[in-house]
Specification:
This protein is an alpha/beta fold. The chain contains six helices and eight strands; from the N terminus they run βαβαβαβαβββαβα. Strand 6 and strand 7 form a beta hairpin. Bound molecules: iron/sulfur cluster. It holds the Pfam family 2-thiour_desulf.
């Protein structure tokens, strides 16, 4: 069986972002993987019951790891504490990945949920910092490798190697 990939729904053109937009990165390889039914398209925030559109949210002065440890909060730009929703989103992303035999994920960077290289700094001022969102934290803790949309070439190379290993086995 070919390895599967969990993919942020907004990267596949679904308008599920907080502001009702998408962030499509439909390159040739992604389309091929989609045709081969290797993509598991998922939006953790929607799965957790958050609506679209929704208020933008950021991790307050910390990162996804600390949110999942209950040491930090996710706050909307209205001041509303949505930490529990985002923790649930992370667990649902992990559940989906495990249930679907995903060994890797391609997630939208800078999101408090899907970010894997950068997240916003919690001041709602457009400033980013190195860090990961809640779903990325949980996926990585469970051995699932996470790439951002800016690392597509790395992901493609990584998948080629894994497919070769499967062929040899
Ligand atoms: S939670 Fe992830 S998949 Fe859903 S809109 Fe945000 S970045 Fe995209």
């Amino acid at each position: 069986m070919k390895n599967k990939i969990l993919v942020s729904a907004c990267l596949m053109g679904f308008k599920v972002r907080y502001n009702g937009t998408e962030k499509a990165r439909l390159n040739t390889v992604l389309k091929q993987w989609q045709q081969e039914q290797r993509l598991v398209i998922h939006c953790p925030e929607l799965a957790a019951g958050l609506p679209t559109p929704r208020a933008s949210a950021e991790i307050l002065g910390s990162d996804g790891y600390q949110v999942m440890q209950n040491n930090a909060k996710v706050i909307e730009n209205t001041g509303n504490d949505v930490t529990a929703h985002y923790q649930l989103a992370a667990w649902l992303a992990l559940r989906t990945a495990l249930d679907s035999n995903c060994i890797v994920a391609l997630l939208t960077d800078k999101s408090p949920t899907c970010g894997s290289q950068y997240i916003y700094d919690g001041n709602f001022s457009g400033v980013t910092k190195q860090g990961e969102g809640v779903a990325t934290t949980l996926l990585r803790q469970h051995g699932i490798k996470v790439f951002s949309e800016n690392q597509l070439d790395e992901l493609i190379g990584w998948m080629e190697n894994r497919d070769k290993e499967n062929t040899i086995l």
